[in-house]
């Protein structure tokens, strides 16, 4: 039997080790990923409008059409479908209670979408505000350095300067693997992203075969661009391929150590009818997705919506099916889930600007988590 003194010393040592692990983790700023992403996209659209010699009214109209956002509008599919029974995950965010109460007074779904994104003063002001007013934590120049200001970003949107692009390349040295989940009802954002990234990216199609076989093929495809030990990886995945990528990562601890971020764009994370919920509950956790170093890997998700589609989303791709589940509250985790919200499946949506915004936000988010 171990004597009490030994047990006390051992317990103290465990406590010190736990504290050391806790303090060795990065202490990133508290940021709203969706708001930052939408401000970046709105700024790129400012540059595009200026290039076209448009005025402030043209820019405002474009932002309100293409950049849906409400400060209290998280989980919009739940708020629009059934606001009376909506329950926030944890504490309510500012403006959320008032928004839900307003939506509950509207009978039709189309009216609720309109109220949340088109008519609410908080939603309009948040998208049209000067991004410099968001403070230092959101200041792109603070994180990216010279050439990385909000005005430089607008110049990139105008297409008459590539300084901002060069800053992104320097700040985030990584190979990008774009995993194409095949044709579907989603806009071809991967095409636009491949065009913006150029030779930084490798494009891979979803393999055939069983989930195990396809995951194995994808694992090799994700490892192929990593030629040097120092090479790092960003994954961008669409459609059903996201589940195969997650399967591949479960069995690839070395690859996870070199992975900077996973970005799901309309990925069928939970299955179109929730058929992958059990698998995600079992495997998408800190134990299965741990990394050798004490750091978090962001898993960002962005998806599409059309106001006429029920359930909310686009045909054959409900918004609810595209969400990564949040890791267990209070637990030290190597997983950070970042919701970038929804974008309209509008045929006139400028996908080149969306691709630039996604590249920018991913770079900034990874940098702030180092």
Describe this entry's structure for a reader.
The protein is an alpha/beta fold and 370 residues long. It contains 16 helices and eight strands. The strands form two sheets. It has a six-stranded parallel beta sheet with strand order 2-1-3-4-5-8, sandwiched between helices. It has a two-stranded antiparallel ribbon with strand order 6-7. Helix 11 links the parallel strand 1 and strand 2. The termini are far apart.
The number of strands is 8
Q: What average pLDDT do the residues reach?
A: 91
What is the share of helical residues?
A: 40-55%
Task: Give me the Rg, rounded.
Answer: 21 Å
Shape: globular
How many DSSP helices? Answer: 16
Low-confidence stretches: 4-26
User: What distance separates the N and C termini?
Assistant: 44 Å
Q: Give the spatial strand order of the biggest sheet.
A: 2-1-3-4-5-8
Helix-strand makeup class: alpha/beta
Order of helical and strand elements:
HHHHHHHHHHEHEHEHHEHEEEEH
Largest sheet: 6 strands, parallel
Strand content: 5-15%
List the helices and strands and how they pair.
Blueprint: H1 4-24, H2 33-51, H3 56-66, H4 76-81, H5 96-104, H6 109-119, H7 121-128, H8 140-144, H9 150-158, H10 163-171, E1 175-180, H11 189-197, E2 201-205, H12 211-223, E3 233-239, H13 241-250, H14 253-257, E4 259-267, H15 277-283, E5 297-305, E6 313-314, E7 317-318, E8 335-344, H16 351-368
Parallel strand pairs: 1-2, 1-3, 3-4, 4-5, 5-8
Antiparallel strand pairs: 6-7
């Amino acid at each position: 039997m171990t004597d009490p003194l030994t047990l006390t010393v051992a317990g103290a040592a465990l406590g010190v080790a736990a504290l050391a692990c806790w303090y060795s983790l990065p202490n990133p700023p508290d940021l709203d990923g969706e708001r930052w992403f939408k401000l970046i996209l709105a700024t790129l659209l400012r540059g595009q409008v200026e290039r076209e010699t448009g005025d402030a009214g043209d820019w405002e109209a474009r932002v309100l059409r293409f950049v849906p956002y409400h400060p209290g509008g998280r989980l919009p599919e739940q708020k629009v479908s059934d606001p009376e029974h909506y329950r926030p995950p944890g504490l309510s965010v500012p403006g959320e209670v008032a928004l839900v109460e307003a939506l509950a007074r509207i009978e039709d779904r189309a009216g609720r979408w309109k109220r949340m994104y088109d008519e609410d003063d908080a939603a309009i002001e948040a998208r049209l505000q000067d991004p410099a007013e968001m403070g230092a934590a959101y200041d792109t120049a603070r994180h990216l350095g010279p050439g990385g200001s909000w005005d430089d970003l607008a110049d990139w949107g105008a297409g008459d300067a590539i300084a901002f692009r060069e800053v992104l390349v320097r700040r985030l040295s990584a190979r990008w693997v774009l995993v194409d989940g095949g044709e579907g009802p989603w806009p071809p954002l991967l095409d636009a992203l491949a065009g913006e990234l150029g030779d930084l990216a490798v494009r891979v199609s979803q393999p055939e075969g069983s989930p195990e076989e396809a995951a194995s093929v994808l694992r090799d495809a994700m490892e192929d661009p990593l030629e040097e030990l120092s090479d790092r990886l960003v994954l961008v995945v669409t459609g059903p391929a996201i589940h195969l990528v997650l399967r591949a990562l479960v069995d690839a601890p070395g690859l996870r150590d070199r992975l900077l971020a996973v970005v799901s764009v309309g990925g069928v994370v939970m299955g179109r009818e929730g058929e992958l919920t059990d698998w995600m509950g079992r495997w998408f956790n800190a134990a299965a997705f741990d990394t050798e170093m004490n750091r978090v890997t962001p898993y960002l998700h962005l998806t599409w919506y059309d106001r006429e589609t029920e359930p909310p989303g686009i045909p054959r791709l409900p918004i609810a099916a595209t969400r990564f589940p949040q890791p267990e509250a209070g637990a030290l985790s190597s997983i950070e889930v970042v919701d970038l919200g929804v974008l309209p499946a509008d045929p006139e949506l400028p996908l080149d600007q969306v691709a630039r915004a996604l590249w920018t936000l991913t770079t900034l988010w990874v940098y702030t988590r180092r």
